[in-house]
Amino acid sequence: MYFPDLGLLIVEEEHRLGFNRKEKTRARYRGIDALFISATPIPRTFHLYDDFGKQSVVDLVLSGREIAVTEDNSVYVRLVTEVRMTKAIEKQIEAFKKGFYELIPYDDIRIYNELELELLMSGLPDIDMADLKANVEYTGYTAASPPITWFWRCNHNMDQEDLARLVMFVTGNSKVPLEGFETLPGMNGVQKFQIHYVSGNTVRLPLAQTCFNPMDLPEYRSAEIFFKLLHAVRECIVGFGFAFGGN
Fold this sequence. Notes:
Pathway: Protein modification; protein ubiquitination. By secondary structure, the chain is of the alpha/beta class.
């Protein structure tokens, strides 16, 4: 849509346009007054103004303050995260590590990764399957649906370590609240363990959204395909992953 007699262009929440669309809009209506408005802080160039409470300029890359942030150089988010989560608090991290290693020597834990260390420190939880089954919520399924029946059958064949991985896969935490699954916490308070029906591809891996404790479970055609569930909870319990399916 084009307005040949347009005299004033006002765009609210300009960040929704993106840099490239914004520049195309400017070029299309060149010569008229344009006002771009946003209440949301927008990264303009590859630098930060704040350095852990001190007002200073921190270039994220060489001459970052001269490089515009666009849709094509999306490494900005990764660089900001790296600065804020590591470099900006490097002294604090080192102080924490020093105190931690005074209690637990580094040589005693160097062989463990972060997940193994968490399980060592928190203990391997005793997952009560009866408690979990009594406090699960279904969306699109019922307790009598074949995939749900196969799901519980698969879980009864798991050992405690794999059950802990299942809980971590769905909730982001291998531990169960003291009051049991009835008080399982989520982003919006208590949010029970959920199993959601997913249509379409029936050979894809299950998906989990750990902020809200749901697991998207495809309507598998047979119990044998449930080995994919074991694969998912063993391989995808840390960080972000993608679930692909094939024949």
